[in-house]
Structure to design on (158 residues):
């Protein structure tokens, strides 16, 4: 796919920025260590809980999904199954792609050359960087696919 000369380094830097942001979320909120997670697209929240009690509440946006069966990434803005108000940040990524001529940010489906999960994380990192999000999460999935969510806010449950 075509891209500007600077984009490969920009995407690489975005990935490392996401690693740092997620590291801070892990240190401060222990994301990834809670017994359970649940997301509710109605209000756009993800709740992490333990012992039946909510511990964290996060405001989320959907970045996109990977499909092990199809072997592709699908941007959230291109998936009519997601509520429109949960994909607004992914539309900013598409707009960024259009503005800068970055094909992989403006095509609905992207097929990786190798690691599908890594592609999902790189695209999610691009979304985090473009939108100034706090971090991202990929709920565990056993079918080879993945849902990539971006955190707009993270707070301790009341």
């Amino acid at each position: 796919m075509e891209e500007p000369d600077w984009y490969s380094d920009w995407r690489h830097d975005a990935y490392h920025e996401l690693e740092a942001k997620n590291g801070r979320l892990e240190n401060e909120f222990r994301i990834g260590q809670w017994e359970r997670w649940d997301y509710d697209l109605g209000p756009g929240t993800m709740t992490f809980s333990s012992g039946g009690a909510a511990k964290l509440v996060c405001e989320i946006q959907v970045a996109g999904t990977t499909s092990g069966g199809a072997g592709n990434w699908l941007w959230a803005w291109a998936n009519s199954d997601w509520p429109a108000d949960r994909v607004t940040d992914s539309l900013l990524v598409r707009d960024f792609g259009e503005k800068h001529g970055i094909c992989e940010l403006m095509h609905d489906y992207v097929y990786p050359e190798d690691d599908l999960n890594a592609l999902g994380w790189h695209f999610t990192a691009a979304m985090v960087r473009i939108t100034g999000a706090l971090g991202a999460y990929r709920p565990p999935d056993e079918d080879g696919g993945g849902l990539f969510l971006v955190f707009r806010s993270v707070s301790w449950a009341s």
Notes: DSSP finds four helices and seven strands in the chain. The first helix runs from residue 7 to 29. Strands lie at 36-40, 45-50, 53-67, 72-75, 109-110, 135-137, 146-156.
